[in-house]
Amino acid sequence: MKSKVNFDAAYIPSEDLVCREIEGELIIVPLVAGMGDIEDELFTLNETGRAVWAKLDGKKSLKAVTEELSAEYEAPPDEIKRDVIGLAEELLKRKMIVEASKK
Amino acid sequence: MVASPDHQVKPALFTKKREELSLSSQQLEKLMRGVLSKGACFRFQGKGCSMSPFIKDGDVLTIAPVQASAPCFGDVVVFTHPNTGKLIVHRIIGKKSGSYLTKGDNAPEGDGLISGTAILGRVSKVERDGKKPFLGLGPDRFIIAFVIRTGLLPLLNPAWRFVRFFIRSRPGE
Predict the structure, then answer these.
(1) How much is the pLDDT for B12?
(2) Which of A23, B118, B137, B166 is deepest in the core (most CB within 10 A)?
């Protein structure tokens, strides 16, 4: 079950994770109960995910992120919106992002 | 968004099992430093036999940050070797001029002097096939470090095999 995101809210990566770019891939290690366990799970983002992730700065709303990406990429705005919301829901469900106003 | 034909079927976020991702020593260090700098522990699978028999190839190691207390004699630590840049897991067998003398329990040579800044963390737990080996990190580590430093370990191997046989042959083991 995915968590509901607020399209008008800004989100920021959680402090409980470590994110590094390795061999062209963005690797995210969640810190669960004070442990970064790379034997258990590593998260990676594809190119689409990375483009969205890079804009989650806690200032821009998801709506603004969608608008920026629509200007940068040649893809239907609806598709971009779906991607942004889909990723944000997935990240929120895994507690990898937090709503900036609730931080 | 990236206008690729298969865009629809690509998940933006996905998990990878460790074995699917080949990490070099430098890349592993990058992740480890990131995790330890947040005061969290780092769990990964070790490779190599230089710490055998106490840590074996494929054992899963938990590394704890060293910010709270400086590593000491007998501790098994992770550090970046100053010459090779490789990530090494070896035991501290001495201290000299603020640096550490380290050596693998099963390595023929020591690593030389390792500065405190090169040490990322301390091995706090070893898991082998889901179980915790009974020697290597407890109070026995002082004796092990002494034996390693004096080069007596090869001479103690027959005794070690006997102890291991005795423990394994106990009822219920």
Answers:
(1) 64
(2) B137
Give the global pTM. Answer: 0.79
Nearest residue on chain A to B17, judged by CA atoms?
A41
Q: What stretches of chain B adopt beta strand conformation (E)?
A: 13-16, 41-45, 60-65, 76-80, 87-96, 99-103, 110-115, 119-127
ipTM > 0.85? no
Total of domains in chain A: 1
What is the mean pLDDT of the segment spanning A25-29? 87
With respect to residue A73, please indicate whether it lies within any of the assigned structural domains.
yes
Q: What part of B 110-139 touches A (C-beta under 8 Å)?
A: none
Domain extent at residue A86:
11-102
Domain boundaries, chain B: 23-150
Report d(CA B167, CA B162) in Å as an integer. 9
Worst-scoring range by mean pLDDT, B21-30, B35-44, B74-83? Answer: B21-30
CATH class of B23-150: mainly beta
